[in-house]
Protein 1
Amino acid sequence: MVSTRRRTDATRRQALAGLTGMAGSLLMPAWAQPVPQGEDKTAPPPQVGSLLPLPELTLLDGTRFHAADADGHVLVLYWWASWCPFCAQQSPWMDKFWLAHKARGLLMLGLSIDRKAEDASTYLSKKGYTFPAGLVTPTVARVLPKPKGLPVTVVRGRDGRVLAAETGQLFPEDVEQFARFL
């Protein structure tokens, strides 16, 4: 039964990946798609096991994220955008995961690739999301380049090494699997 579910999940992800590309091309011609601040279109996701440096940044709520605060904690990094339909599907699950596990020491950092901080802030407020989020600026991108694709979810372990790196929309059961790293 488990192997059938894994095949089903893998098949579902493959189908979604195909639809993601197709939907993106239908929604907007490639030349017209926005190029988010600091996005390196050739950056691969970080390799599992690699050290992942973190930037210092001001969050959308005006507080600061200090890289040193993540030492000894599991940190979920989540690249998203207010205009991304796949992020719109995944973001509620990310917020729910954050709320369910922050008492256990989980840290989360949403990284919006919106061009304007106001767009990202308004979106978070309108949806009622509470996960900490900042804007990917050129300064942030120099330390932590955005991998190709959207949404992108990376789990950084207590030792600063990548435990998981996923590109594309995740489903609730995929997001919940990150709890095993806590």
Protein 2
Amino acid sequence: MRLKVKRLKDIPLPSYATPGSSGLDLYAAEDVEIPPGEFKLVGTGIAVEIPPGFEGEVRPRSGLAAKYGVTLLNTPGTIDSDYRGEVKVVLINHGREIFHVRKGMRIAQLVIKKVERVEVCEVEELGETGRGEGGFGSTGL
């Protein structure tokens, strides 16, 4: 499968760090400072054309979380196959120091996933299960 990428700024194209990587690294297209407890929208300098029947999932980088307490506010973020704007990520700083995003820094990863479309059918009743309506915490710790 091919992922068409339009470079909007002088920034590296998404790339796999290793042959076994699931996610393509996304790079910051700008310098941004994120104070502790705050979040910022950071551009990646690219737009993508995801094939129909697929989506892009934007996920955090574990190294940023482990070393600095920085992660994505909405994760996974979804890029729909018909979106053609700049890919941006919402970074949040859970750390104790200002986090300095630098242009060219790897800030997130993009995983391309197959998605299924469903037909929505309104019904009067749903099938029963052993769990039923048990919600948060209902299956134990």
Protein 3
Amino acid sequence: MRVRIRRLPGNDDLPLPGRASPGAAGYDVRSAEATFHLPAGQIRAVSTGLAMELPPGVECQVRPRSGLALRNGLTLPNSPGTIDPDYRGELKVILMNLGSEPVTIARGDRIAQLVFARFERPELVEVQEVSESRRGTGGFGSTGVG
């Protein structure tokens, strides 16, 4: 699989997304913005300075970085975010500070990870009933009760 990545003008200094280890599933993506502070409880869309062209049938999932979540309370409120294969605009990461202190993000800081996945496009068929299952209608933790 090949994913075409374009650095947007003014971002030649930033590395392309990359994996931190040979076994990593996620590709770290970086902030393309000048240093800013994200106050506790705030949400902000952060530019990456990148656009991509995904192959048909492949999505790019934007996920939080576990270290930022643990140390600073940074997460992605729509995680995983989805980049569709027909989107060609700039990749932006929606960051949210769930911590109690402001977090400083500098240009070039790793802010999220990208995971690429194939997806299906099933035909949705409306029916009057769905089949029974052992679980039935139990949800929201019902399988762990008892």
Protein 4
Amino acid sequence: MMRTLLRRRALWLLTVVATACTSPNPTLYTLAVVPGYTHTRAPRHIEVRAISMPHYLDRSEIVRSTEDFRLDVMGNDWWGESLDTMMGGVLVQELLQRLPGSIVFPENGAISSEPDASVEVNVQRFDADRSGAVVLMAVIAVLRHGETVASRPIRLRVMPRAPGTAGFVAAMSAATGQLADVIAEILAR
């Protein structure tokens, strides 16, 4: 009887220790498509080339900030896919909405049509500043038939409207939408 009781306690203790050592599943997030103003004059076929991201953002965990020489990473809040791929897909959808007469497709997609215009985005920063606002710094270029027709730096700042990771990701989505607004405006010229 005593041995049975000791075995049960040992099994219970092992179960408790094993449970304590496991971490909860991460919460996964994705950028959302944000609608914007539509433009009627734009090239017919537009290719969004692969988005270039700084390596510090190339991770599963969401990077909250790079202020004060520190990388503030949200340990259990992860992206549902790589940020550069997700941002490229969202930009394609946002440009489709903003440029209803155009066919917008990603560089690495199934469409192999020769584009009338291409969009390149080099993200330099996409995290929060000291005030908590999301900062998106990038250089964008629009090419027509292989030649750059417009290139400019962009600095967008969006304050989250809600606390926590969901509010932070919503602000990142809003910044991506504002980036799509700028790109659509350039393409419509």
